[in-house]
Amino acid sequence: MLATQLALEPMRRTGGGAIVNVASTAGLGLAPYRSPEYAAAKAGLIRFTSTLASLRKRYGVRVNCVVPDWILTARAEQELAGMTPDERAAAPEPLGLDALTDALVRLVRDDELAGRVVVLRGGEPPRLLAPDEAR
User: Shortest CA distance to 24 belongs to which of 13, 11, 35, 16?
Assistant: First the structure.
């Protein structure tokens, strides 16, 4: 959030641009989460991003957010390996890094998606949240 705030004025002075924040599905929904502080921070980043859509006119900067579920990294592989078979079966399908990078590039390139939030869940196509979906 602070990085976005610090980048806005310099980006305006140099002609605008695009910012894509990366949150987490931990910030969506109302189900309990094992790290409430993390979930609250990610929910805040999602909401912060959606409220900055109006800055496109003022600063010439598009602000978007990608909200990935579990990403297949070395750490995720370690966590999966440490789970019981039942826990592994209940865990979401991890995303490949290519799904995340594809979404990031799409948001940087597509001016029509200014202010939008994209949710990425393993095994599902990317989903654009509607501007009023959080109600």
Answer: 35
